[in-house]
Amino acid sequence: MNFPEELKYTSEHEWIRVEGEVAYIGITEHAQNQLGDIVFVDIPTVGEELNAGDVFGTIEVVKTISDLFMPVSGTILEQNEALEEKPELVNQDPYGAGWLIKIEPSADADFSVLLDAKEYKKTINE
Question: What is the distance, to the nearest Å, from the Cα of residue 79 to the centroid of all Cα atoms in its chain?
Fold first, then answer.
């Protein structure tokens, strides 16, 4: 299983990658493996400012719907439009083409509570 070192992780299985003033958020390879085939991604919160831990959308698989949680506080700038036509990108490339949202982290966004790759790996192997 893949745990990119440059990412930070949550115990709810989201990842975040900061690039300059924006950050990309998605779900981990472990999460998409556990969920199975993703059939729909719903992110109705574009433009909203949310706090860490808030639900920003849902992922639907054949038998269930799972909430998606903000790793840090910020404003949602954009959702990955490619997922409207191809939600399976989350399964195929969860750390690349399958990203979910792009945010502008708030000034008080706390990245220190996030897990590094080694810490995240320990949480899923317990």
Answer: 11
Q: Is 93 exposed, middle or buried (0-12, 13-18, 19+ CB in 10 A)?
A: middle
Q: Distance between CA 123 and CA 35 in Å, rounded?
A: 17
Q: What is the mean pLDDT of residues 24-53?
A: 96
Please check whether residue 42 is in contact with residue 125, taking contact to mean a CB–CB distance below 8 angstroms. no
Q: Which CATH number fits domain 8-106: 3.20.20.60, 3.40.50.300, 2.40.50.100, 3.30.499.10?
A: 2.40.50.100
The two three-digit tokens of residue 79, written as one number = 């959702």
**Strands of 65-69's sheet in order across:** 38-42, 55-61, 65-69
pLDDT of residue 2: 87
- pLDDT at res. 1: 84
